[in-house]
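Homework help board

Subject: predicted structure for assignment chain

Our instructor gave us this sequence and asked us to write out the predicted structure in token form, then describe one feature. I got the tokens but I'm not sure how to describe them. Can anyone check?
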Amino acid sequence: MTRSFAGRTFVVRIDHSPVDARTTLADDLAFLMANGVRPILVAPTPHVARACVRALNRQTNRAVGLCGADAALLPSAGRERVGRVQAGILATLTAAGYIPVIEPTAYGFGDDEIAVGPDEVAAVIAGATDAARAIFFHSAGGVVDPQTSVLVEELTPAEALALADDPTFDAELRAAVGAAARGVRAGVNAAQIIDGRVAHAAIVEFLTDRHLGTQVTGAVYLGAA
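My token output:
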């Protein structure tokens, strides 16, 4: 299954979980790159981005930290929004075998960097790079139906955006689900909200026909086989 993703971008919005021996993220990224997939990471804060670069480079020597101002990657559109992504630097780095790790900052007309939502950054990066998948790590592991306490396996973009407007859900989960929907509407094949602490969570999609957590996709869902 990984062959169908060769040459494609894979965007992961990581969370605050440490990238070290307690997770398999570094190994998962190495596996993806060995199979021609081009991962891009988006961190929740600049501090986490820099820590992630250090942790990955203890194993891979391939992680490169970027902020919104680097090569005009993420211009500000005002009100903590991102304008048109300048994705050239990402294409250059991923084609050369590097893993971009992006801070959630944009640049404006002044000298200061502007904080933007990491979920929005992941969504616009995924759309601008024609990503095959966008993954959003969240400790909840996906969306749980409040009526049944059962994990919701599949959402359409419209359903996901409706959930993102529902104040009864966790704010960070709403941000992830809304960004997943916007990424799919921007052309991403599918987006998942999963628990990044699960072993090999980042590559299950590439190895099997199953997916973890909650998937947002524009395709018609026919249920479990």
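Reply (TA_rk): Your tokens look well-formed. For the description, you could write something like this. The chain is about 30% helix and 20% strand. That's the kind of observation they're looking for.
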